[in-house]
Amino acid sequence: MSDTILEVKSLSCKGQDGNVIISEVNFAVRENDVVIIQGKSGSGKSTLLKCLAHLNLYDGEVFYHGETPKKLGIPLFRTRVTYVPQRPSLLPGTPRDFIRAISGFSARTGSGIKKDVLYNEIAERSTGIGKAWDVEEGLWDREWSNLSGGEAQRIALATAFGCDTAEVLLLDEPTSALDAESGSQVEKFIVDEVRNSESALKAVVWITHSDEQGGRVGTRYLRISEGLCDEEAAPDV
Ligand SMILES: Nc1ncnc2c1ncn2[C@@H]1O[C@H](COP(=O)(O)OP(=O)(O)OP(=O)(O)O)[C@@H](O)[C@H]1O
User: Fold this and answer.
1) By three-state DSSP, how is residue 189 classified?
2) How far is the CA of 229 from the centre of ligand 1 (A)?
3) What confidence tens digit (pLDDT) does each residue in 73-86 have?
4) Atom 4, ligand 1: residue with shortest CA distance
5) pTM for the whole thing?
6) Which of 88, 142, 227, 229 could join 156 via S-S bond, C-beta 3.0 to 4.6 A?
7) Which ligand 1 atom sits closest to the C-alpha of 48?
8) Domain ranges of the chain
9) How many angstroms does the Cα of residue 235 sit away from the middle of ligand 1?
10) Residue 42 near ligand 1, beta carbon < 6 Å
């Protein structure tokens, strides 16, 4: 189908101990999809997202518009298919250091844009989105390790949107550390961006433990159980 962005074929992943975590996963992500991934704790949801972002080794294939990440170039692929971690507080330095580092990647500056100009653009967009989510300006200069879980989560997400390059965002429980009000603000922003035809973002793969959230935002539903991944009907919430 022409609107297919990602195609996952026979994807399997083992842990360092050789145990199979997920096996023979097949699905496609198409334009306007909000694909909800559900499953018990430890079932392999984050593992699947990290494989999609080419952060884990896997067997099988992931195609982005029909091309493998290797053929496209993995750094460029990661600017288009971007993983947003559940616990960004494990990153070194401050959020601004992180923006400075990613502004220097040649996959981003390859278009000829200067590193400093790109840094200013990403920082301005990211802090602007953060402001709308009540993230104080000063928090961008605090070490990730000293941010609260909810602050770090909003900052990581605002930065992913601030980069404005991802066609697919892989969101690992993006609102799990947020209070109800902040969570619904962020949730609405994500869904609006997928629906906004002017946004670079065309689809989201979203891990959530909440059936209610899945029901509100999802358009398709995958469940991981005992290493296998099956598509399900929308939950009855
Ligand atoms: N590198 C690794 N080596 C060995 N085992 C691993 C590795 N990474 C993850 N695992 C194991 O694989 C299983 C799946 O982990 P994963 O983080 O994908 O689960 P999850 O479904 O996202 O869980 P949660 O809902 O608790 O976040 C777990 O049992 C985990 O301990």
Assistant:
1) helix
2) 15
3) 999 999 999 999 98
4) 15
5) 0.94
6) 88
7) 18
8) 4-41+53-232
9) 24
10) yes
